[in-house]
Amino acid sequence: MNMKRLSQSPPLGCQGPPRQLPRRPPAVERRRPATVSLGEPGLDAALPEGGLELGVVHEIVPAGPGDVAATIGFGLGLLTRIAAARPGPVLWATTRDPGRHGIAYPPGLAAAGFDPGRLIHLSVGTAHDVLWALEESLATPGFAVAIGILARDIGRYDFTASRRLSLRAAASGGTAIVLGTAGGGAAGSTAAATRWSVAARPSVPVRHPGHAMPGLGPPRWQVALERCKRGRPHDWLVEWDHETLRFHLAAPLADRAPVPEGIGARPRPAAADWRAA
Amino acid sequence: MLAPQALAEPSRHGLRITATDPAAERAGVNPGMPLADARAMCPALAVVPADPDGDVATLRRLAHWCGRYSPWTAVDTPDDRAPAGIALDITGCAHLFGGEEAMLAGIADRLAGFGLTARLAAAPTLGAAWAMARHGPDVRCIVPDDATPETLAPLPLAALRLDTATVEAMSRVGLKRVGDLLGKPAAPLAARFGPRLITRLDQALGRQAETVHGLVPPPRHEARRVFAEPIVLSADVERTVAELADDLAARLMDAGVGARRLDLRLYRVDGRVRETTVRTSTLCREAAHMVRLFRERLDAETDEVDAGFGFDLAVLGALAVEPAVARQDGLGTAGENRPGDPAGNRPDEVARLLDRFGNRFGFDRVMRYVPRASAIPERAVRAATVLETAPAAGKPHDWPVHLRALQGGRQLGRPLLLILPPDPVTTLAEVPDGPPMLFEWRRLTHRVTRADGPERLAPEWWRPWAETGSRTTRDYFRVEDTAGRRFWLYREGLYDRPGDTPRWFLHGVFG
To answer: In this predicted structure, what is the pLDDT of residue B304?
Structure first.
């Protein structure tokens, strides 16, 4: 401690006593917020705290109307990362919309690396109820993380609502993720710490011998960090690894256009050889 | 002076009077009389259609209200045209209301306040009370413990709860009053008029036991507050609930038990009862938790508690009581409940919040998922309410194993979101058994660029038809379109099987 003081003291010849140095603002003196790493240095480095901050509200929106599933996939990745770091159950609160976007399917969640045994699924009638449930879960110690999926009347989620959630989260250290499936509805300013926008991208094709059509690679998303307190917007091409439970930045070279047409009509040298023989 | 009134209902021979008020009775109108005759005798008679179902409902509500006097209350359903009534077992209750005299007077006062005229009788047996209330000389009477035979003797035989045919048969042989049967040998009577006669006589005289079958089993533990002045305001109700909860929590703690169901009854001055029940997933015996649960319910039901003219009695009862030693770990998560540990698990607090969710939104909305051994996607998972017993700590459901059983060696073989019911899609496939090249879902055309599959799921023929719904083979494909969106499609039916017309469905989407 003393060493540090000394090293920070003004060098010889500097005028004025150290007392008159500009006082550090109190905001800097607060302890570093808890974070969880996203498993990819490239992503963590772009976040101001060196990782996804806990004790705040994060927003995720789809980039386009067809990207809801990709958005939920990315949100599930964040949930998995946070749930691995914090004990307790995970609240999944959603407005009821049977058949529209589909309902969370636990084996699918398990396939993506999330433990459905920790899931508590709450389906309620209105966005207001979802926000209420999120707020109550933030006020309750014991939940690892809560995600609220707002499919309808997203206008309910305004600055006031996000501020309420943020204050609760800051007081308790809990984390909430608000996922609006309607996209641009919550474009207004909110008190959330980050806001991510997600779009689906074609995955790396996996070639199966003997099949005309290539198989699917790991899911790949264009993830844009649209807004970030004390940080800068950023844009990545991200893949989710369900085995190691971490995000990966897709190698730029692998980011190619959709498989060109005619990939199925491969030449068949083997057959020609056979005929020749 | 009010106009004479009567109720009428259709019968085989036209409309008949079923009930009259005193004014109509004075004018000579009697129940059972044809309406035409009644109109002729009393032209000013106001007739209203009878509503037997409404009568029973009202009587039931009134019986519920009588729960304030005794937990064992029951409705005498009207059989064989006997006027219906309410039976209370006041054994051990009368002294709480100042003795039988004062109790009957109090009941009569309150019923008169509702605008009801009542005939009341208190007797050592249910049969005797029934007889005195309907056939006794006074509107209010108390039968002393040792005077039942003498009191009943002058009453008509109908007072013994016998059907009309038996009463008529007995009157033909000159048996008209209860006293005519006293001291007669039982065997010949039973042989001639049936064993029921003897049963009823013995029940009335206390020679055979009879109990009141209550509307609801009374709670073993309850707390109550009586108000001299009825309370109306929601704030007062909330304060009362808090006081009752304190009281009940102390009682439960003393008894070493916890409750799974709590029942709050607010008795309104005008004879209605407002009943609210909350359930909990863990044994509950903390007053603060009870209060919060009731607040959720009262919030969810109405903004303002409908108090009418006010509540004059509030009772909080603990139903479904269990010994608190059998207390379970809230959510099957590892770790103990350590209040001083901020980062540790708090199963209790989580369970309490889930109770609040359940009581606010309904327990069918708060779900946990449990694996189920079935390969059919819809059946592979079971939604369990949080009220169900949590899995034992340290032995959670093994999802990885279940998943491996479901999808075999494939990776990411199950979708994130399931579309239920599956959406029919139109497809264009290159080869009949292969994945589609093109499909249209919700008026958008998707061109498929990558596909995995097929994964064939055979129907579960060993289950009853009602459980499975369909008996066709499904071939599942995981496909990705040009934009990178991933879908789970299946083809139902086989091309090479005669009689099958394969159709395509979209069953889920991947993240």
So the answer is: 59
- A78 in reach of chain B (CB within 8 A): no
- Interface residue B133 vs chain A (CB under 8 A): no
- For residue A154, pLDDT over 70 is answered with yes
Which structure tokens are listed for A253? 């070279």
Q: Is the pTM of this model over 0.95?
A: no
Given a contact cutoff of 8 angstroms between Cβ atoms, the answer to whether B206 and B147 are in contact is no
Is residue A254 within 8 angstroms of chain B, CB to CB? Answer: no
Q: What is the pLDDT of residue A252?
A: 60
Helix (H, G, I), strand (E, B) or coil at A240: strand
Smallest Cβ–Cβ distance between B346 and the set A141, A173, A212 belongs to A141
Cβ B511 vs Cβ A220: under 8 Å: no
What is the average pLDDT value for chain B, to the nearest integer?
A: 82
ipTM over 0.90: no
Task: Measure the N-to-C terminal CA separation of chain B; round to a whole number of Å.
Answer: 79
- Closest approach of B431 to chain A, Cα-based (Å): 11
**CA–CA min distance A133, chain B (Å):** 8
Residue that has been written with the tokens 């290539």 in this structure: A214
Q: Please indicate if any CB of chain B lies within 8 Å of the CB of A124.
A: yes
Interface check for A110 against chain B (CB to CB < 8 A): the answer is yes
Among B171, B287, B172, B176, smallest CA distance to B223 is for B287
How much is the CA Rg of chain A, to the nearest whole Å? 24
Note the Cα A69 to chain centre separation in Å: 13
**Residue A224 β-bridge partners:** A197, A235
pLDDT, one tens digit per residue, over B167-214 is 888 888 888 888 888 888 888 888 888 888 888 888 888 888 887 777
Choose among A82, A83, A92, A80: nearest CA to A149: A92
Best residue of A216, A241, A256 to probe chain B, by most B CBs closer than 10 Å: A216
pLDDT digits (tens, 9 = 90+) for A90-122: 999 998 775 577 889 999 999 888 999 899 999
Main-chain dihedrals φ then ψ at residue B313, nearest 5 degrees = -155, 135
Eight-state DSSP code of residue A156? G
Contact flag A219-B510 (C-beta cutoff 8 Å): yes
Task: Please give the Cα distance from B337 to B330 (Å, whole number).
Answer: 10
Give me the residues paired with residue B223 across strands: B316
The tens digit of pLDDT for each residue in B428-480 reads 887 878 889 999 998 899 999 999 878 888 888 888 877 766 678 888 999 99
Contacts (Cβ under 8 Å, ≥6 apart) of A154 = A127, A180, A182, A185, A186
Q: 3-state class of A225 per DSSP?
A: strand
Nearest by Cα to B55 from B85, B10, B94: B85
Query: Are β-strands B474-481 and B46-49 bridged in parallel, bridged antiparallel, or unpaired?
Result: unpaired
Q: Check: CB of residue B439 under 8 Å from CB of residue B486.
A: no
CB A130 within 8 A of CB A92: no
Tell whether the model's pLDDT for residue B245 goes beyond 80: yes
- A84 contacts: CB under 8 Å, gap ≥ 6: A36, A245
Q: What is the pLDDT of residues A10-55, one digit of tens each?
A: 444 444 444 555 555 555 445 678 899 998 888 898 888 888 999 9
Structure tokens at A117: 């045994």
